[in-house]
Amino acid sequence: MMENRLELRGLTKRFGKRIVVDELDLDVRAGEILGFLGPNGAGKTTTIKMTLGFLFEDAGTITIDGYDLRKNYERALSSVGGIVENPEMYVQLSGRQNLELYARLHGIRDRARIDEVIRLVGMEQRIDEKVRKYSLGMKQRTGLALAIVHRPRLLILDEPTNGLDPAGIRHLRDILKRLAHEEGVAILVSSHLLSEMQLMCDRVAIIDQGRLIAVRMVHELETAQDLDMLGAVLGADGVAAAGERDDDYDRSLPPAPASAPVWRIDVARPEEAAAALEAAGLFRQAAGDRVELPRSLYLGIEPQSMLAVQQTLLANGHVLLQLRREQESLEEAFLKLTQNSRIE
Amino acid sequence: MHKVRILYRNELYKIFRTRLMLIVVAALLVFPLLQQLGKRQSGGDDLHHADGSWKLDGLIAMYDERIAQTLDYARSEGEDTLYQALEVAVYDRTLKSYRELAGQRPEIAARNFALDLVERISRLEVWLDPEAAGIDLPAGLPADELFARQQEIIPGYFEDPSGLPRDRERAREQLTQLEAALADGSHQPYAEFMLGVLDEASAFGPESAGFYAGRRASYALLVKRADVSANAIYDPYYIENTASLLQEASDCEQSLAEGIDYTRHLPRALSPQRESAVRDRLAILRYKLDHDLISSSYDQNHGESAYLGSWMLVLFILAVYVGIVAASLISSEIESGSIKLLIIAPVKRWRIYAAKYLALITTIVTLSLLAWAWLQLLHLVIHGTQSMPVTVAARNGSAYLLPFALRNLLDTACFALKLLFYGSFAMMMSGLLRRTSVSVGIAVGVAFLDFMATFVSYNLGWQYWFQVMPFINLDIGNHFYPTLLYQSMSFLGMPPNSAYIPLWFMVLYVVGFLAIFIATGLQSLTKRDI
After folding, report:
1. Does residue A208 contact residue A42 with C-beta atoms inside 8 Å?
2. In the 8-state DSSP scheme, what is residue A326?
3. Fewer CB in a 10 Å sphere around the end CB: N or C, chain A?
4. Out of A78, A98, A146, whose CB is closest to B346?
5. E strands of B253-343, at which residues?
6. Shortest CA distance to B363 belongs to which of B15, B17, B7?
7. What are phi and psi of A319, to 5 degrees?
C-alpha cells in the first residue's frame, strides 16, 4: 500500500446556502497521477483551493504529507506545489525573480536548482523577461517551474495544459510522469482535456455536484462500458447534458446523444454517404474528438437505428467497407457518470 | 521573521520600482523647487525686498491708497451734514499732509504710525478751525463749542475716549504733542501720546480698560523699548500683533493666578495638564515679546511663510500617494491574482499582512524624510540661512529655541504619523473591499474630507464631538512644541483644537484607531476566502 500524500476526509464547502463540495473523501498516493474530473461547477477548483489554503473549509480535514493543514499550516504547505486556475505571479517581476521569491519562501537559495527547473520547463530563453510579456503558455511553464522548484512531495495542478501548444502538453506530460513514477511525487491534476487525462493519469476521480462519484483506474474506465454494448440509452436528457458542455465538437451538425454508442463506417465516398444519411434523417455526428480518416464516418446513433443506416447506405449505392462499434472513450464514460449534471 | 523579511523586501521592490514612485519622487522634487523659485524670482512682494527688508515706497503707496480711498468714500457719502463736511475736510487735509510728509521725509512716512499721526493732527486742526477748512458752521454753533458738542454732531455717537478730546484746550495740547511727535519722527513720542490717550480711556471704567488693555500694553512696551526692530517700525500690523500676544499673555497670567482657564472661549477650571500647557504658552509669549519676535502677516516670501507653501504641496502629494499605495496593497494582489503565489507558499497570511504593513511604514518614512531634506536644502539655497527663523517652544514653563530644520523635522514626523494613520485606514479598506478602484477612491476622498474637516472644525470652534472624528487632530506634536500647523492656523485666528485636547486622549485615540484599522485589515486577509 503506497502512502497517502493527500488525504481529504469529509471535506465540505458552502457558498451561502449552496453546497459546493459535499463531504468529499479523496486520497492521492505517492508516485501516482490522479486525474480530477468533473463538469464545470462540480467543485474541482474549490476542492483544490481548500487544499492549498485559499478557502476555508466548513467541515472535514485536509492532511498533506501527514500534517493537518489547519493545525500545521506552514509545515503542511511546505511539501506542496501547485497551480490554481491560471498560474499567477508578479507581472512586474521577471520569471526568474518570481521563482527566486517563491524559492526563498521555501527556504531555498540554491541558484543551481532554480536554473535546473528553468531548463526542465524549457524557459531558459525568456526567464529574465518581465512576466507581463509572457504568453499564457510561457506562464504555464513558469508556473510549473514554481510548483516544482522546492521538490514538493505533492503536486496539485489545476488545468495545467491551458494555453500550452501540443509539444508543450506532451512535454508537461513527460515531466509529470517522470516526477510521479521516478521520483514518487503524488500528483493531482484537474483538466477539461479528457483525452489528456487518458494519456497522463493512472487513476481518475470523478466529481459531480460536489460529491465524489467514482475513482477508477484509467484502463478500467476504458473497457468497462464494452460490457454494455446494447445497454439502455438516454435520449433527450443526454442531449441536453452534451449541449451544456463547452467542448469542441462541431455544432453545425446535429449532435448525437452523448450517451449513444459511436459507430465507425468506412465507405468509398464518405461525403456523399453522409449527405444520403442526412437526407434520410439518420446522420448524427459522434461527440468528441476523433482522428479524421479519409474514408470514415463516425456516427453517434442508437443501435436500433443501425439497420436503417445500413439500408440507406446500400440503397444509395455505398458499399460498407467496414462497420464497427468504437470502443467507448474516457470522455463518454465520464459523461455517462455525470450525465445529470448542470453547470450551476 | 525570516519569511516576513523576504516578503517585506518583495513589497518594497514592488512599491519602489514602479513608474508611480518615479512620478511621486519627481513631483516631490520639482513642485517645491518651482514654488520656491517663484518666490525668489518675484523679488519679494509690494512691501518687501527680496532679502526680506521693508520697501519704503511700497508702504507709502499702501498708506496713500488707504487714505485716498477713505477720502473717496467720505465724499461719496455727501457733505450735507456738518459731520460729513468735517469728515471730508479731515481726510482731504490728511491726504495732502501725508503726501507732503512722504515727499519731504519718506523714511518717516513709511513708518507704521505715520498715517495715524497725520490723521490725528488733521482732525484736530479741522475741528479747531473749521472756517479755515472752508466749513460753514450752522447758526448758533460757535467754533469753540465744537468739541463740547461732539455728541450732537457725530451721528450714532458713543463716547470714545481714544478719539477726540472733550474740550478745546485739551485738543490744543494734543495737537502740540502730536506735532512734536511728528517732528521727532521716532516711535517713543507717539507711543507715549497713545499711552496717555488710552490711560484716559481706561479711566472710563473696567469695560473700556479691558477693551484697550492689549493696545495700551503694546504702546507701553514700545515706550520702554529704546531700540526697536524693523518690524516694530514698519510692520503695519505690529501694534495689533503685539497687542494680541500681550492680551494672550495677560489671559495666561490671569488663568494661572485664579486657577480658571481664560484662554478658551468658555472659561472653565484649570486642569493640572492644562495648567502646564498655559505655563508653557506664557513662557513662549514672554520670550517673543522680550525679544521682539513678533511675526508679520505680510512676510509672505520669507521664513515660515515661504516654507509653508512648499510644505503644503508636499503634504498634498504624499497624502494622495500614500492613499493610492495603501489602498491597493491587498486588493491589487487579489485582483491580479498574484496573491496566489504567496498563498500557495508555506506562509501564514498574517506574515503577508505584516510585510505589507512594514513596507507601508518604510515608504512613508522614506518619502517624508526625502521631502524634509529636500525642502531644507531648497530653502537654504534659495532663501539663505537668514530666512530660517527659529521657533520659540517651551517645556516645563521655560522657553527654548527650536532651529528651523529641527522644527520642520518634528513636523515631518507628526505628519508621517498622520500618514500612517491614514495609510492604515486605506489598507484596511483595501482588504475589506478587495477592489482597488473603490478603496483608492475612498482613501483619497477621505484625505480631501480630512483637510476640509480640519478647517471646518476650526471654524466650528470647540465642538468636541467633531474633534473625535477620525483623521482630525493628530497634531500631537503641538503638545510639545508649536507645530507649523498650529502657528499658521493661529496666524489666521484659528488656533487648532489640538491645543485643547488632552495628550492622553490624543494618544489613546491614535493608538485605538490604529489598532482597529490594523486588526480589521488583518482579519480581512487572514479570515476570509481568497
Report:
1. yes
2. P
3. N
4. A78
5. 260-261, 268-269
6. B15
7. -90, 130
pLDDT tens-digit readout, A16-67? 999 999 999 999 999 999 998 887 788 999 999 999 999 999 999 999 999 9
- Cβ of residue A152 closer than 8 Å to a chain B Cβ: no
For residue B37, the surrounding DSSP H or E stretch is: helix B19-41
Cell of B289: 515679546
How far, in Å, CA of B361 to CA of B353, rounded?
12
Measure CA A107 to chain center: 32
Dihedral of alpha carbons B23, B28, B33, B39, sign? positive
User: Taking a C-beta distance cutoff of 8 angstroms, is the pair A328, A277 a contact?
Assistant: no
- Do the Cβ atoms of B346 and A73 come within 8 Å? yes
Which of A105, A148, A154, A158 best probes binding to B when mutated, by most B CB atoms within 10 angstroms? A105
Asked if A74 and B4 count as a contact pair (C-beta separation under 8 A), the reply is no
Tell me the shortest Cα–Cα distance from B447 to chain A, in angstroms.
28
Taking the CA atoms of residue A219, residue A222, residue A227 and residue A233 in that order, the dihedral angle to the nearest 10 degrees is 150
Residues B214, B237: Cα–Cα separation, whole Å: 13
| Contact of A145 with A102, CB cutoff 8 Å | no
**Residue B518 zone, left/alpha/beta (φ > 0; ψ -120 to 50; rest):** alpha
Q: Which residues pair with A64 in a beta bridge?
A: A6, A67
Beta strand pairing call for A4-15 and A59-64: antiparallel
A248-257, B251-260, B294-303: the lowest-pLDDT one: A248-257
| Nearest-CB residue to A102 (from B14, B341, B530) | B341
- Given pLDDT bands bounded at 50, 70 and 90, which one contains residue A293? low
Checking if the pLDDT of A235 tops 70, the result is no
- Of all helices (H) and strands (E), which one includes residue A299? strand A296-300
CA closest to A78 among chain B residues: B346
* Nearest alpha-carbon partner for B222 in B233, B212, B213: B233
Q: In this structure, which amino acid lies at residue A281?
A: G
CB contact under 8 A, A105 and B342: yes
Residues of A in contact with B338 (CB under 8 A): 88-91
Residue B422 makes CB contacts below 8 A (sequence gap 6+) with B319, B322, B323, B326, B443, B446, B447, B450, B471
Q: A343 to chain B nearest CA, in Å?
A: 22
Percent helix, strand and coil across chain B, each rounded to 5? 70, 5, 25
Rounded to whole angstroms, how far apart are CA atoms B225 and B220?
Answer: 9
The residue in chain A having the minimum alpha-carbon distance to the alpha carbon of residue B19 is: A92
Task: Please judge whether A54 and B530 are an interchain contact, meaning their C-beta atoms are less than 8 angstroms apart.
Answer: yes
CB contact under 8 A, A105 and B347: yes
Between chains, do A54 and B529 touch, taking CB under 8 Å as contact? yes
By the CB < 8 Å criterion, does A250 face chain B?
no
Adjacency order of strands within the sheet including A262-266: A296-300, A262-266, A322-325
Q: Which residues of A touch B342 (CB under 8 A)?
A: 105
Could you give the CA distance from residue B198 to residue A280 in angstroms, rounded to a whole number? Answer: 122
Instruction: List residues of B whose CB lies inside 8 A of any A CB.
Output: 3, 6-7, 10, 13-14, 17-18, 336-348, 527-530
Which chain B residues touch A104 with a CB distance below 8 Å? 6
Question: Residue A109: closest CA among chain B residues belongs to which residue?
Answer: B6
Distance CA(B444)–CA(B423), nearest Å, equals 10
Inspect the interface and report whether the beta carbons of B336 and A91 lie closer than 8 Å: yes
Contact A206, A42 (CB under 8 A): no
